[in-house]
Amino acid sequence: MENRELLAGRPKTVLPIPHLYCPGCHHGSVFRLIAETMDELGIQDKTIGCVGVGCHAFGFMFLDIDLVSCLHGRAPAVATGIKRSLYGKPIVFTVQGDGDLAAIGMGTIMNAVIRGEKLTTIFCNNAGYGTTGGQLAPTTLLDQKTTTTPYGRNAELEGYPVHVAELIATFKGVAYSARCSLTSRAEYNRAAKAMKKAFQKQIEGIGYGFVEILEACPSTLKLSPKDALRWVESHMMEEYPLGEFKDIDSIP
Amino acid sequence: MGEQAFISGNEAIGYGALYAGCKHFFAYPITPQNEIMEFFASELPKRGGVFVQTESETASANMVYGAASTGVRAMTSSSSTGFSLMQEAISAMAAAQVPCVIVNVQRGGPGGGTTQTSQMDYLQVTKGGGHGDYHTIVLSPSFVQEAFDFVQLAFYLADKYRHPTIILSDALLGQMMESIEMRKLEFTPVPEKDWAVGLGRKDGQRRMIFPGFVVGSMLREYLVAVSKKYEQMKEKETRYDTRGLEDAELVLVSFGSTARAALEAFLMAREEGMRVGMIRPITLWPFPYQIIKETSHKVKKFLVVEDNLGQMVEDVTAAVTEQAQVYHLGILARHLPGPSGLILPQTIYEEVKKIYGK
């Protein structure tokens, strides 16, 4: 552990406490990315994070910023209340999983972008529910087996995987929407750039910034960390293309 | 003397909030509370405030949660159906100790119900509403002046205890107009909101708005702390109004707009020489059990009048001693079978006469 710190260092915005994630889970890396972005932009003291419900929420324990714990799916509404009540001064972001954002909270995120809020959302898409033990999420792949689709996701019964980053990009109040993965150093670097842009669009007052990150959940996929990573490449990236779907500097 | 104004109960809620320094309001349209949100939509932009028409009452309550987490005075209002949608967030705000004010201008229910008056949300609002072990102070205005005053009181109590506070109004009170005095009420200082987010990591410390028991071993500590808070509320904040208890042989118990009809029946009975008293609970939680219990040592007849099938009557029954008899006059005594029926003073008076003579 000590050696690792020597090699990579620790972002200023991360507290020196161990995280709670399973081996091979990508949530830890996502939060590291968020912390690095805040360090780079120098916004630690004026940022407020809104915590959803799901495994992603544990990451907030080691972020050294102001935090508000939100109900399942409601983080964009809470973030709206915070941002508006302080007259747009703080940088407010949400981190939400695929169940939190795309199932129970789909209406909440949609209405936040419809209202043209100037917020940032980091959307963790790992194709299933992790905390509750591996159930179907709106982002679960076709034929993917979960504890509530034991015979595989069937489009006739459960519909098709939802493409949130593309959907968000269609709203006028959105300034940035991208999908990234963390499957290689190169992808990690691209994700870092996307995250920085998603925060900058808010800082500059342009519009909503949104980044979807494809993640592995080795525990519910019942794969080793390495195989889970490969599964993201071979299965998830096939369904969910990476890229920037919107990147504008003013709302036309 | 403050300025005199002739306004509705709903407008009084709006003015009361402005007098309390509330500049942050989030709500979704629903009859019969629309005048409250329309008031803020027109008044807040002029005063540098924040008004958001939300996509649902669920969102309203969660936006209040976010706003109040920054330490500002924030509020929402709704009516029965929409108030139900807020329960999860109210429970969360009680858990995370976020002070705010929520107004429920009751309509008829259950379900989608009617757009006209009732007092059917008593049990919901006093016995939790949301899940989990929590209470909120509930203020019940009977007059437009009280609607105005109680919003100020509600913000004071919310900040004093760092807890959500509810005002239970109804369609009748919301829509009626009365002459009131606009006055700023004075309260003792409330604690500094050093816990709020957005202070820029003051003293190098992050602020977290979390349910107090998010880490397993802290649950007991949290429960001890909140139970102390609820005990303090019961001890210090129980409010009620009494009339004619000194020589009463029958006591009317009634709240909200129905208490106005009960009060008229009380006056009619007194005029006829009947020794009738009245207790009007002002805080529905904490409920004034003590005064009712004490009264029941000498008064053996209680008549609970409420515009529902029998909700507060459960609390009155729990409060009185065994010898006392509790009667109930409820929604079935309305003068019309449709949603615009009311329990008229004459009906209450007839019931008083009947029970008094027994």
Can you put this structure into words, describing what you see?
- Chain A is of the alpha/beta class.
- Helix content of chain A is 38%, strand content 17%.
- Chain A contains ten helices and seven strands.
- Chain A has a seven-stranded mixed sheet with strand order 2-1-3-4-6-5-7, sandwiched between helices.
- In chain A, α2 packs across α8 (185-203) and α4 (98-104) packs across α5 (106-114).
- Chain A is globular and about 50 Å long.
- With 358 residues, chain B is α/β, with parallel strands linked by helices.
- Chain B has helices at 9-19, 34-43, 57-69, 80-85, 87-96, 122-126, 144-161, 171-175, 219-237, 258-271, 289-295, 312-319, 345-356; strands spanning 3-8, 24-27, 50-53, 74-78, 100-106, 137-139, 164-170, 177-182, 208-209, 240-243, 250-254, 276-281, 283-285, 301-305, 325-329.
- The longest helix of chain B is centred in the middle third of the chain and has 19 residues, at 219-237.
- The mean pLDDT of chain B is 96.
- Classes of the chains: A alpha/beta (252), B alpha/beta (358).
- Chains A and B meet through β2, α3 and α5 of A and α3, α5 and β9 of B.
- β2 of chain A pairs parallel with β9 (208-209) of chain B, so a sheet runs across the interface.
Helix content of chain A: 25-40%
Biggest sheet of chain B, strands in spatial order? 3-2-4-5-7-6-13
Fraction of residues in β-strands of chain A: 15-25%
Which sheet architecture does the biggest sheet of chain A show? 7 strands, mixed
What's the assembly state of these chains? heterodimer
State the strand order across the main sheet of chain A. 2-1-3-4-6-5-7
Low-confidence segments of chain B: none
What is the CATH superfamily of the largest domain in chain B? Thiamin diphosphate (ThDP)-binding fold, Pyr/PP domains
Order of helices and strands of chain B: EHEHEHEHHEHEHEHEEHEEHEEHEHEH
User: What's the number of domains of chain B?
Assistant: 2
Mean pLDDT of chain B: 96
**Regions with little confidence, pLDDT below 50 for 5+ residues of chain A:** none
**How many individual helices of chain B?**
13
What is the CATH architecture descriptor of the largest domain in chain B?
3-Layer(aba) Sandwich
Beta-strand percent range of chain B: 15-25%
What's the number of extended β-strand segments of chain B?
15
Mean pLDDT of chain A comes to: 95
Helix content of chain B: 25-40%
What's the β-strand tally of chain A? Answer: 7
